[in-house]
TrEMBL record:
Molecular function (Gene Ontology), one example: protein kinase activity
PANTHER family xref list: OVARIAN-SPECIFIC SERINE/THREONINE-PROTEIN KINASE LOK-RELATED, SERINE_THREONINE-PROTEIN KINASE CHK2
Any single Pfam family the record assigns to this protein: Pkinase
SMART domains, A to Z: S_TKc (SM00220)
Keyword Ubl conjugation in record: no
Protein name: Protein kinase
Keyword Transferase: yes
Classification via SUPFAM superfamilies: Protein kinase-like (PK-like)
All residue ranges annotated as the Protein kinase domain in the record: 43-338
Origin species: Flagellimonas hymeniacidonis
Key words, A-Z: Kinase, Transferase
Length: 338
């Protein structure tokens, strides 16, 4: 893991928050990172801009390994994530650029403590990239980091694998272990959803710490009434923050997003892993497709609207799921969802 600064060639630019690459002369697009020449390509050809909420992602191919463009692999050597928002020279840095900096700090912190269920950052720093918009066409500096390529993503994995209940529980436990490790460094994730759960190097892990907040963070990044979290997977207090925080009735509602919010979000993800939909509204026992009452109660408690009535720690969830897993294994019945 190295802190390095890099420069993108002129054939690559960021235009309105999306990468533009001249694919006619691919070798002219090479980027040098720590003495190694990498060729950047779009991660997803169906979404060539590869633009997320706060970052753009490209796959990187080590040019020294391949002599011919026809030999370039489908699986890249690394992936680079670049913040869409530049670091200004003469004015205050934007909120989104500061969030990207916190994301890098959190990942580096977790890596330095050798947490096994968190993705590895190989390089991080600032990238000088041609920035094209209506008014300017010049280089600007953007934060970036490189990481390993994900073999799969949770939603896609579940689409092609009909798992047994035991296998689904194992998946739930491994993802909860990843959150436990993030918490061990005093970070709240706040953006837990299936798209942010990746399979890398034979492990499932929670990625994208772009909304992460440290328990002892002294600088307030969030705006009053800001939408924090993924649509469809938000906690009640995140919705309260959006609807009530800057309003006269603010004091009537809990708008604080913390570790209990992570419990709610991961509870929704566990429900999705177990049966392929999202729990919405007033949840009833009949909504849960499995006959196992104990598993239902574990997740139902995670999904209480009141933070005070939710499970208090992720260790408690892991312990309860492992107990059910052990019991199912002992019985030896292989239950399938469909």
């Amino acid at each position: 893991m190295k802190n390095v600064d890099i420069t993108f060639p002129k054939s690559i630019c960021l235009d309105k928050g999306k990468f533009q690459i001249d694919l006619e002369t691919p070798k002219e697009n090479a980027i040098t990172i720590d003495g190694v020449f990498y060729l950047p390509y779009f991660l997803d050809n169906l979404n060539p801009g590869n633009s997320g909420a706060n970052g753009c992602v490209l796959k990187l191919i080590d040019l020294e390994k391949y002599n011919d463009i026809r030999d370039y692999p489908l699986i890249p050597d690394l992936v680079i994530k670049v913040c869409k928002h530049s670091i200004p020279k003469w004015k205050e840095e934007s909120q989104r650029s500061k969030r990207f900096e916190i994301e890098i700090e959190a990942l580096v912190d977790c890596n330095e403590h050798n947490l096994p269920n968190l993705m590895t950052v190989h390089h991080y720093g600032q990238a000088s990239i041609r920035w094209s918009d209506i008014e300017r066409n010049r280089n600007a500096n953007f934060r970036f980091y490189t990481m390993d390529y994900a073999d799969s993503q949770l939603s896609k994995y579940l689409e092609v694998n009909n798992l047994s209940l035991l296998e689904r529980l194992e998946l739930c436990i491994e993802i909860c272990e990843s959150l436990k490790q993030i918490w061990s460094r005093n970070y709240y994730h706040r953006d837990i959803k299936p798209d942010n759960i990746l399979f890398i190097e034979d492990k499932w892990m929670i990625s994208d710490l772009g909304l992460a907040e440290h328990r002892d963070q002294t600088i307030e990044i969030d705006d009053d009434g800001e939408w924090i979290g993924p649509r469809g997977w938000m906690s009640p207090e995140a919705m309260n923050k959006f609807l009530a925080e800057s309003k006269p009735w603010n004091s009537l509602h809990n708008c604080k997003i913390n570790h209990q919010s992570d419990i709610y979000q991961i509870g929704k993800v566990l429900w999705y892993i177990l049966q392929g939909n999202s729990p919405e509204g007033g949840i009833r026992r009949s909504d849960f497709l499995w006959k196992n009452e104990n598993i239902y109660q574990i997740i139902r408690t995670m999904l209480n609207n009141s933070k005070e009535r939710r499970v208090k720690s992720i260790e408690e969830v892991i312990s309860a799921l492992k107990k059910e897993q052990k019991q199912l294994f002992k019985v030896g019945v292989i239950d399938m969802l469909y």
